[in-house]
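Hi R.,

As promised on Friday, here is the backbone we talked about, encoded as structure tokens. Could you run it through your design pipeline when you get a chance and send me back a sequence?
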């Protein structure tokens, strides 16, 4: 009788162990699958996108660009901004007065006065958003690190222009 109870307990413990191990492997596999979707970031990209750093002004790839197209998230490739919403604020970072619908999240910055902007999909750091500066009619400036972005030129528009 004692032996039976012991075996039953043993069996239950084994079951819990197996279930825990399986859950652990499933979670690890899911995390790895998500990693594969994301672009591998170099050290500087990690500093800005993952650790909320800021690139030096007038040094980024896109602060002066005017080409037609879409700016995507460097990490997860979600489309974030259209070139038609880009303007030159003279601040040394790419500036946009609007985002692609639901693509960008606004969160209070840890400095307690600015508003941080992050990619709604992967939560990668983009920069900060400011309002009330009257640069454009929309009165909004998304101040974005070039290194958080990838530019995808609009080839259809280029073709139309060529015709
Ligand atoms: Zn993203």
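Update: got your reply. Pasting your designed sequence below so it's all in one thread:
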């Amino acid at each position: 009788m004692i032996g039976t109870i012991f075996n039953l307990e043993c069996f239950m413990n084994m079951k819990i162990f197996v279930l825990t191990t399986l859950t652990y492997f499933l979670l690890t596999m899911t995390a790895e699958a998500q990693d594969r979707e994301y672009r591998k970031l170099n050290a500087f990209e990690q500093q800005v996108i993952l650790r909320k750093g800021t690139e030096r002004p007038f040094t980024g790839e896109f602060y002066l660009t005017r080409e037609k197209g879409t700016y995507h998230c460097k990490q997860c490739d979600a489309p974030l901004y259209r070139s038609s919403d880009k303007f030159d604020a003279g601040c040394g970072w790419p500036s946009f007065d609007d985002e692609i619908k639901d693509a960008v999240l606004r969160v209070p910055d840890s400095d307690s006065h600015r508003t941080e902007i992050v990619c709604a999909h992967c939560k990668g750091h983009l920069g900060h958003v400011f309002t009330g500066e009257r640069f454009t009619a929309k009165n909004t400036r998304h101040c974005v690190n070039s290194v958080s972005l990838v530019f995808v030129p609009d080839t259809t528009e280029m073709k139309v222009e060529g015709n």
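One thing I noticed while checking it: The mean pLDDT is 88.

Thanks again,
M.
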